[in-house]
Design brief:
The protein has 70 residues and is mainly α. The protein has helices at 2-58, 62-67. It is rod-shaped. The termini are far apart.
């Protein structure tokens, strides 16, 4: 009757939910690693722009002016 049906549906739900939970946690870990990698690359980009900005503020180097490079 009702109790048997409830037990069967509960078991079926657990059979679906437990693997789904493992998949979710695995994929969340993969995403977390990707986010960390993206943050590292973004910091490299920010540093590169900062260096370019500082060079532009200083102007061309004396050796670049003499050699005609810039």
């Amino acid at each position: 009757g009702g109790i048997g049906t409830a037990l069967i549906t509960t078991a079926a739900g657990l059979i679906v939910a437990i693997p789904a939970l493992f998949a979710y946690r695995y994929l969340r870990g993969v995403v977390d690693l990707l986010v960390v990698d993206m943050e590292k690359e973004a910091m490299k980009l920010v540093r590169a722009f900062d260096q370019l900005s500082r060079r532009a503020e200083r102007g061309p180097s004396p050796s670049a002016i003499v050699s005609g490079a810039g």
